[in-house]
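Example with several molecule types.
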Amino acid sequence: MRKPADHRKAEIVAKVLDLADRIGPDRVTTGAVATEIGITQAALFRHFPTKSAMWTAVAEQVSDWLGRAWASALSSGTKPLDRIAALIAAQLHQIAATPAMPMLLFSRELNVDNADLRAAFRDRLSAFHALLLQEITHGQQQGEIRDDVTASDIAVLLISLVQGVAIRWSLGSRNFALQDEGERLLAVQLHLLATKGIR
Amino acid sequence: MRKPADHRKAEIVAKVLDLADRIGPDRVTTGAVATEIGITQAALFRHFPTKSAMWTAVAEQVSDWLGRAWASALSSGTKPLDRIAALIAAQLHQIAATPAMPMLLFSRELNVDNADLRAAFRDRLSAFHALLLQEITHGQQQGEIRDDVTASDIAVLLISLVQGVAIRWSLGSRNFALQDEGERLLAVQLHLLATKGIR
DNA sequence: TGATTAAGTGAGTAACTGATCACTTCAGGG
DNA sequence: CCCTGAAGTGATCAGTTACTCACTTAATCA
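Resulting structure tokens for the full complex:
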């Protein structure tokens, strides 16, 4: 059962992500990936020169997904608060669909072995920060968001919210719906931020 | 150069934490620990039956530190807001002093290999949540904290703040002071929470 | 048709890791 | 003074992992 190269590559990337979720990023071995796909371990190296290259391909895949999700979030709604909520929701959705992501952020692969992977994720995170910052600033200019707190601090608080919920979801055996819980807390935080007329 | 058993045990635990910080928790090998201490790899197993046991000892050490830090934080100040700030500051201080902790939360060792370790950390996290919850509730009763948001949600927001800052600090090569940045953001969040008289 | 070549195989290898074991060293108590 | 037992050593083992290589298979196309 031979498959054309691009198909196999995509299949490998998907399996790496799947295994990373099920057994942890640093437990993903070339052997496990290969046998689960149904080919020999040696065959993997026909498609990727090294194991690191597989992870780099995974990072590109995830980066691509995130980019698309953000773009579509930004094109929904016109009010800054709505767009912010859409951005956060997209982020939560991506994490739920790629449960290995929180773990991946702290994996040995990313932090020690693969500098490219690390750089890729850092770029993506700061891009998200920039997008949020822009919307928050607009929100403050339009009076939707209180301006007695700097936009950058608000962005960090919102990003932290996502990460905190994701961690709790990840460590807590995923015993609640990440998306729902995240959006509930987001509503709370946005309520705090929208409240104008400080005493 | 022989050392009494307790001293060696403590030395091993400290070295495991040190190495976990420098090269990642899952890269800590018995060989590396031993040679950095200056003994043979085999000698480690005079003090711990398995490698897992070393990690369990590490968890007990960290748990102990956290417990003490929280207790001392709670005994400082009388106003709930002060005590909350002290709790968060203690947490930030512990993370800064034990930089391996965020990574450890997502290590293979904790998530896959060592169920005891996992349980120990989860217990500690929920204990922290409980402490925060209590202080927040007091704060609401005394009118220091707005009560149009549930205490539990506030607790999650504060914990998320810590985790979010820790992640940013960890991924960003620690290019800012975790403690300062964390306390600055905490002040912002507490400002949002303290503001009464919503319109 | 026959040559080319991408995809896959099976059998390896070198390096590393956790753990074991027989043996040595040495301090303290009877 | 010698005996016991804790602490350490050096050699070694079995298992795992990433990666290699000579070789086969099969689809494509000139």
